[in-house]
Amino acid sequence: MDTLVSINHLTKTYQRGPEKVEVLHGINLDIAKGDFVALMGPSGSGKSTLLNLIGGLDNPSGGEITVEGERIDRMSPGQLSQWRSRHVGFIFQFYNLMPALTAQKNVELPLLLSPLGAAQRKRNAEIALTLVGLAERRSHRPNELSGGQQQRVAIARAIVSDPTLLICDEPTGDLDRQSAEDILGLLRLLNREHGKTIVMVTHDPKAAEYATHTLHLDKGTLVEQQPDAH
């Protein structure tokens, strides 16, 4: 498989008062195109920091991050913003939907940055909502949807621009078990049937079972990499 994400000697240090705290220590990691990676580890191990760096939401203190042949660690904030809008979809624990907008208008939001006209934005949003099984709820606002349905809208919003990479931070952390399994099944479908590369932070071993690889971080160091049974 082709490598989609290549990370070399990655470090991240934060200034906390007078102290410098190194959160990531020389991470080396390759993620293949079409992979589904679960990133696990105790609180404070650096999982979300690594996820944010891969998704271009933050800059490393040292090392290299290459995604699809582009060195994103060298990009300016403006370049990173443009790169994210083209290449990355984000799914968070809390759905971050606009309460005043319908499901369809929420899904259209990333397309407002694109050159698409209103009719094409609407069409693309309908396609994404159909893919996540919510076409018939497209006129509903978030408060008229269950938690699982709201997360499906958030996933539709993440995929509407057809990104190569999906970044998921505890995507099932706020859901009951059945809704969580529905969302994980949808992510697996996006991975297997639609070729999306997924990197997912999770505390839930059952969620990690849906991934093709599980990576373990501890105190800012990658301690283990294991292919899952399936």
UniProtKB/TrEMBL annotation:
This is ABC transporter, ATP-binding protein. InterPro entries: AAA+_ATPase (IPR003593), ABC_transporter-like_ATP-bd (IPR003439), ABC_transporter-like_CS (IPR017871), ABC_transpr_LolD-like (IPR015854), MacB-like_ATP-bd (IPR017911), P-loop_NTPase (IPR027417). GO terms for molecular function: ATP binding; ATP hydrolysis activity; transmembrane transporter activity. Keywords: ATP-binding, Nucleotide-binding, Transport. Belongs to the ABC transporter superfamily. Macrolide exporter (TC 3.A.1.122) family. One of its GO terms (cellular component) is transmembrane transporter complex. Gene3D superfamilies: P-loop containing nucleotide triphosphate hydrolases. PANTHER family: ABC TRANSPORTER ATP-BINDING PROTEIN, IMPORT ATP-BINDING PROTEIN.
